[in-house]
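for the writeup, i need someone to sanity check this before i put it in the appendix. the sequnce is what the collaborator sent (i think, or maybe the updated version? ugh). structure was predicted straight from it, no edits. if anything looks off just tell me and ill rerun, i have time this weekend
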Amino acid sequence: MSLAEAQKSKAEKPQGTVGLRAAMKIMERWGASREQMARILRVSGSTLARAKAGNEGIGLDNDQLDRISYVLNIHATLRLIFDNPDNVYGFIKLPNNNVFFNGRAPLDVMTDGSFASLYETFRHIDGLRGAMW
């Protein structure tokens, strides 16, 4: 990959910055710490601070954009499943005895930082609404 291609893959994408701020707000409502947010989204603490401060044009790569998308989709799925905001935002912190979670909270599973854990968490939560994968 050339330098120009590498720079394009981490280009400043305004929609990514907006998505990052939205994902951060959701994760704050979930009770996630800054460290958890950084691990889940694979961004630095300084990137989170710049997004929170309203800086536009934060460079995000495709993996980071995909992670943001999964957080937004997990939130959307929880809103479809639950009417009560306490459940929408609290479910992610509760221990879950589903075989995949093995008594861990979905937030703890996602915090391991791997893309697979984030994807599988989404897949299992989405399955609660009857989605078939």
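The first helix runs from residue 3 to 9. Residues 48 and 110 are 17 Å apart (CA to CA).
thx in advance!!
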